[in-house]
Amino acid sequence: MLDNLVDFLGSNNRFTGLLPASIVNLGQLGRLDLHDNGLSGELPSGIHSLKKLNELNLADNDFSGNIPEEIGSLSMLNYLDLSGNRFSGKIPLELQNLKLNQLNFSSNRLSGDIPPLYAKEIYKSSFLGNPGLCGDIAGLCDGREEAKNLCYVWLLRLIFLLAGLVFIVGVVWFYWKYRNFEKEKRAIDKSKWTLMSFHKLGFSEHEVLDCLDEDNVIGSGSSGKVYKVVLSNGEAVAVKKLGRSSKIADESSDLEMGQIQDDRFEAEVETLGKIRHKNIVKLWCCCSTKDCKLLVYEYLPNGSLGDLLHSNKSGLLDWPTRYMIAVDAAEGLSYLHHDCVPPIVHRDVKSNNILLDGDFGARVADFGVAKVVDTKGKRPKSMSIIAGSCGYIAPEYAYTLRVNEKSDIYSFGVVILELVTGRLPIDPEFGEKDLVKWVCTTLDQKGIDHVLDPKLGSCFKEEICKVLNIGLLCTSPLPINRPSMRRVVKILQEVGAVKLQKMVKKDGKLSPYYYEDASDHGSVA
């Protein structure tokens, strides 16, 4: 009965599945319109049997596979619409045999070249939406070029990624080789080190040498880098490294710098090696080779007074703490000047050379430019370096170029002014003045309240003013007017003793802080 079917119009339905193979048996079929359904799969073979078919519309389905070549044998066909499917492969050349009024292969997955008959601008819209399709029609190959460009982009990304990976692996490898080289070099050089100890040691020089990495650098003093070394027993030591510069091109300059470094090393070893005092930094030992010298000190966890006082941690330094630091440092310098035989001049007293232990007890450190005072009329060994640091140098040094105990006292006076004012020895606010001149000028013009560090409050104002006067006395322009360090210690202790007496009268008991002060420092009643 269906053999005589001429028109099969089934568009806009919900047909799914495969197109029945029996449809090719409809020999009288002239129109087959099944567009806008859900049909899928490949077209059945035998379509060439539909000799009278003049319209084939299978648009907007889900057909796949290749377009059958046999469609080209349908001589009556003048309308062919296969758009909106998933047809792939090439467009059969046999379709050029058809005399089509309407042709649409758009929005498929076709590839290859368009048959020459249809590779014309008027058919352009019939082939759009097929990324792999190409021909002599402008714009049709954009998709292919875009895909090709995308491939190039990903290829470049992959190349850069691999190059970056190779670079990182190379850096890690070279770093590992460098570390191994340094360890091997250090192991070879260990046998060349000479150790001189000044106390009973619980460690070897090899243990110290293994930890001299840049990661362990904690600062740079006036005479070399300083490392923190944690020993196997858990204790820490500070290691100062003195080495001759290898970056100086002038040979004579290189020799001079090496001589200065040797002088510094000898000065520190000669000075600290024989000193035993609670307020002088302890030198455990020294290690030396021809080109490098190490000084191993006790490690003081709170760092230098200068770093603490002039940073955002200055709030840790209340007045009792600052006072005790002043007393400790004064006792250390007094020992050098009066109890060492012969006396020793530090020559670089400053807040950065006063180190603080865990309880903020002070130690005088950095004796790289220290000098034994000549007591027998012999000229001391000369050192090719300026003695002192900017802001701490006594005024008479400018015209005498000589340093003695009075120079240390002046520098210590500047440290006292730092403790009282909280200011640096040199500050842009001072203009051409230094801290000493600024304090004197401000006292005359504005009064004491504009000089004292506001962080100290008013509770200890009387004692602070007395210590300020001691600082001004130590920084007298004339050396003869400066008290000895022994006298400085005494008058500093008297300030603490007066405060202690007031507290006894007021509270009837001793403050733990000043009780410790009285026992440790011999406060004068």
From TrEMBL:
It is found in: Cell membrane. InterPro entries: Kinase-like_dom_sf, Leu-rich_rpt, LRR_dom_sf, Plant_LRR-RLKs, Prot_kinase_dom, Protein_kinase_ATP_BS, Ser/Thr_kinase_AS. The keyword Coiled coil does not apply. GO terms for cellular component: plasma membrane. Coiled coil: none annotated. ATP binds at K241. Keywords: ATP-binding, Glycoprotein, Kinase, Leucine-rich repeat, Membrane, Nucleotide-binding, Repeat, Serine/threonine-protein kinase, Signal, Transferase, Transmembrane, Transmembrane helix. It is a single-pass type I membrane protein. Its main location: membrane. It comes from the Eukaryota. Its EC number is 2.7.11.1. It is an enzyme of class 2 (transferase). Residues 212-495 form the Protein kinase domain. The chain crosses the membrane at residues 154-176. It holds the Pfam family Pkinase. Gene3D superfamilies: Phosphorylase Kinase, domain 1, Ribonuclease Inhibitor, Transferase(Phosphotransferase) domain 1. PROSITE patterns: PROTEIN_KINASE_ATP, PROTEIN_KINASE_DOM, PROTEIN_KINASE_ST. One of its GO terms (molecular function) is receptor serine/threonine kinase binding. Belongs to the RLP family. This is non-specific serine/threonine protein kinase. It comes from Nyssa sinensis.
